[in-house]
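User: Design a sequence. Structure:
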């Protein structure tokens, strides 16, 4: 197993069943340990959060993931009439 940098790991995920997976950050491409569906390491998340705060402090409108409506993939599902 490869060692990771502790500042990149999501240690608060470790007590969850799926919280000790090796993941790769989409920003810095470094490996970190965290929940299996995480895509950003803690270090990049923190720096992105700081940048977002700085932008909003300067008057720029900064959205968050919570602003995006969540849709279920089955919302528009319709049975295929061709399949019998």
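Assistant: Done.
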């Amino acid at each position: 197993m490869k060692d990771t940098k502790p500042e990149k790991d999501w240690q608060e995920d470790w007590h969850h069943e799926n919280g000790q997976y090796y993941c790769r950050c989409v920003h810095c491409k470094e490996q970190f340990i965290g929940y299996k569906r995480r895509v950003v390491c803690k270090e990049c998340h923190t720096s992105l959060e700081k940048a977002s705060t700085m932008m909003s402090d300067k008057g720029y409108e900064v959205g968050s993931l919570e602003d995006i409506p969540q849709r279920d993939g089955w919302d528009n599902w319709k049975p295929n009439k061709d399949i019998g």
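Residues 1-54 form one domain. The CA atoms of residues 3 and 68 lie 35 Å apart.
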